[in-house]
Amino acid sequence: MTTYHTRDEFVQDLIASGFDIDGIDAADLCDRVLTARYERGELVGYECMPVNIASLIDALHGIDARNFFDRTRADFVSVPGHPARPADHVSGSGSRYWYHDEGVIRESDHWGHGIASCTWTLDGAAFLETDAPVCGYCAWHDFERK
Predict the structure, then answer these.
(1) What is the Cα–Cα distance from 9 to 65, expressed in whole angstroms?
(2) Given CB 3.0 to 4.6 Å as the disulfide criterion, which of 11, 36, 65, 116 pairs with 99?
């Protein structure tokens, strides 16, 4: 994690890295993150702002369909099935995902540690492999960054 001592230092590093999120330019992104953190009482000014890309995205949007699959921890709750529509995403391992405004339904035959960079349990089970896929639901606000 890098600590920036000035806003310009932060913006220049974002520009140099080619960082782009939803068409927001680096200076606007910096200002939005700083404003959000200031309003939550986390900053007095721009000085000494620790930054990583996941925390930038979370500060702007929270955890949602755009970023829940990157280094998160969550406990899904069993649900009887999935929506009667095509999945919004199918992973390389065959897990299927249906996104909703408030959360996500995941259908999979594997749960626990090592779900890509995530730890996603089902009903609190630390590790679970099933013969047939089972569905679980987790609200966006219940995801935590690892």
Answers:
(1) 30
(2) 65
Q: What is the pLDDT of residue 31?
A: 67
Q: What pLDDT is recorded for position 32?
A: 67
CB neighbour class for 5 (10 Å; exposed up to 12, middle 13-18, buried from 19)? exposed
The reported pTM is 0.63
Residue 27 structure tokens: 């200076």
Distance CA 74, CA 144 (A): 6
Kindly state whether residue 67 falls inside one of the protein's structural domains: no
| pLDDT above 50: residue 48 | no
Hey, what are 75's tokens?
A: 């406990």
Q: Is 87 helix (H, G, I), strand (E, B) or coil?
A: coil
Position 49 in a domain: yes
Helical (H) or strand (E) element with 115: strand 103-115
Q: Count CA atoms within 13 Å of residue 110 on its CB side.
A: 11
**Distance in Å from the first CA to the final CA of the chain:** 14
